[in-house]
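Write out this protein's structure.
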Amino acid sequence: MKSSGILEKYRSLLNLPAHTKTISLGEGETPLIPIPHIAEELGGGFDLYVKYEGLNPTGSFKDGGMVAAVSEALGAGAKTVICASTGNTAASAAAYATRAGMKAIVLIPDGKVARGKLVASVVYGAKVIQIKGSFDDALKLVVEITKKHPIALVNSINPYRLEGQKTAAFEIVDQLGKAPDLLCIPVGNAGNINAYAMGFAQYDGLKKTGVPEFLGVQASGAAPLVIGKIVEKPDTIATAIRIGNPARGKQALEVVRKHGGKIIAVDDKEILAAQRRLALDGIWVEPASAAGLAGLMKEIKEKKLNVKGKKIVIVCTGNGLKDPDIIEMAKPVLIEPTLEMLEKAVL
């Protein structure tokens, strides 16, 4: 039976205020799925897993951090939460806010936001506002309004978001028995890579379970941490990481400096190829979630990474149903309802 959530399971390890009022949608306990076929295709000799965060209640890793942020806000007496979002944060904030009896306001950037994410935000009852600008513009606005009005900011610059998200690292260690040698993870606003680093380091301090190296992966059209400067107009099919000025970018660079690894960029073609390959192993993720595998495939192909004998975990952050319109699909074959026609179509 699934637990009642990560706050109950890991509460003693989380730096949350005493006033926090725990809510839950049963988040966490997402599976660590072995993908040996893909490992063999990449040369073999190592163990490869997917941490499938797309099986959280709203379909993305955001739930782990959002349950902590909204629980703290509720305990602090907030009536409304707000966030800037490319989609997943909006859906998660809306779900947890309505669960807590609070209002949610979400700002989304101009341009494409995956319909599956936007619809979820509306269904959960959020007030959705689209601005004529980028995600970074939206984030600036929500920061400004929360300084002026009693509205709780629940973007990843909220420290309690990372406290919740770091529990995914605890889960990996609990599932694997120790920290992996390498963690491959998409990087957008860069909160998640920092949260995992926090979690692994904390568990290592308690249980000597180790800290992995990190392979952070950005989309080439939105890769400020790779090119070393802000991207004014980020552009990628992977909308969840279409961010040109990551709020926690400096900390992400510090993670790879301290623990080893690197942050690289992959193009949209590589991301979509990785998404298709994961689907052939029964794991359908949104494009941004495939960035971790795309980065690993690129590093191995270019012989920049020695994986022999290692345990490697790819973090897949969001479910494929988040962005189904990205899939090009031929119309189904239409036949008359007879055995003869079925045999002709099948055989």
